[in-house]
Amino acid sequence: MNFTQPLATGLATLAWIRQAQGDAAGAREAMGAAGQAGPGPGVVGLLNPVPAQRARLQLAQGNVAAAARWPQECGLRPDDEPGYPREPEYLVLARVLLAQDHPDPALALLERLRAAAAAQDRTGSIIEIQALQALALAAAGDEDAAVDALAQALTLACPQGYVRVFADEGPPMAALLGRLVAARKAGQAPARDVPLGCLALLLRAFGQPPAVSGAERAAAAAVPGLVEHLTPREREILVLLAAGTPNSRIAEELVVTLDTVKKHVSHLLGKLGAANRTEAVTRARQLGLIP
User: Fold this and answer.
1) Residue 48, C-beta contacts closer than 8 angstroms, at least 6 positions apart
2) What CA dihedral angle connects 80, 84, 60 and 175, to 10 degrees?
3) DSSP letter string over the chain?
4) Neighbours of 222 (CB within 10 A)
5) Closest by alpha carbon to 34, among 56, 52, 8, 6?
6) pLDDT value at position 228?
7) Which residues of the chain register pLDDT less than 50?
8) C-alpha to C-alpha distance for 181 and 179, rounded to whole angstroms
9) Distance between CA 133 and CA 90 in Å, rounded?
10) How far is it, in rounded angstroms, from Cα 114 to Cα 100?
11) How many CB atoms lie within 10 A of CB 41?
């Protein structure tokens, strides 16, 4: 039995893990090994993902010229009508177009791919395509539509735990995510519907804290993973929550009303992306906010 395709896929995945860890040379080495283990060049699409993944890795490492040669060699064009088996290749083609500053043909291609995925109810494909549509809209200068498209993608992605599909798009996605966070803080729809906990996970994946005002920065140290930073009073209440202190006792200790404590706890849950006090304490420990 021939196991070359699973081996090649596994090595390509290893390449992306190394890329995410900042090991660019190791990523190239693993992708090279995937190419040697994979099927022949005549096997395309789902059966041989390595050539497309190699081109995508080249894009991620800034080698646009090398990546752009791959669709030319394969005869891929933005006005093609690709079937599902070749969808991954055409998604890489869309990324190449964006890297070459050609957002319009990328948008047209992505819309055809999205329509096909929607007709077959392929949620995973829709999430990835909408993420790329958001980047294409941003590249075309339509930032409002880009934020809306990203919010729609995240609304689908967050319940299923998708992170790398966004994080692997690099700095352009990080910048767009920052605009979405700002739109959410301003209460704009559909950005306001994206769960705070989901945004926190994405920000951690990008290795950056969200932008905060000078007052917020003075009030609390920046903590990667928080969508909004905690105030000193919220930190006090968090410590008391970790100790199992009930709201009534917290109100007595801090000399505030019970309603004030409840409001602070509600804000804490939102900022930590938690559903209850127990989840809030667990999340705070994961972020190093409390021992």
Assistant:
1) 5, 8, 38, 39, 40, 41
2) 90
3) ---HHHHHHHHHHHHHHHHHTT-HHHHHHHHHHHHHHS--TT--GGG--HHHHHHHHHHHTT-HHHHHHHHHHHT--TT----GGGHHHHHHHHHHHHHTT-HHHHHHHHHHHHHHHHHTT-HHHHHHHHHHHHHHHHHTT-HHHHHHHHHHHHHHHGGGT--HHHHTT-HHHHHHHHHHHHHHHTT-TTGGGS-HHHHHHHHHHHT-PPP--HHHHHHS---TT-SSPPPHHHHHHHHHHHTT--HHHHHHHHT--HHHHHHHHHHHHHHHT-SSHHHHHHHHHHTTS--
4) 13
5) 8
6) 64
7) 1-2, 209-224
8) 5
9) 13
10) 22
11) 12
Closest CA to 90 of 103, 101, 77: 77
The tokens for 125 are 């494909």
Looking at residue 37, its amino acid is: A
pLDDT digits (tens, 9 = 90+) for 127-168: 999 999 999 999 999 989 999 999 999 999 988 889 999 999
Residue-level pLDDT at 105: 97
How far apart CA 41 and CA 47 sit, in angstroms, is 11
Return phi, psi of residue 258, to 5°. Answer: -65, -35
Please say whether the beta carbons of 248 and 257 come within 8 A: no
CA–CA gap between residue 157 and residue 159 (Å, rounded)? 6
- In this structure, how many other beta carbons lie within 10 angstroms of the beta carbon of residue 227? 23
Phi first, then psi: give them for residue 286, nearest 5 degrees.
-60, -35
Tell me if 231 sits within 8 A of 217, measured CB to CB. Answer: no
Q: Count of CB atoms within 10 A of residue 190's CB?
A: 17
Burial 134-148 (b: 16+ CB within 10 A, else e): bbbbbbbeeeeebbb
> Is there a contact between 5 and 48 (Cβ–Cβ < 8 Å)?
yes
| pTM confidence score | 0.70
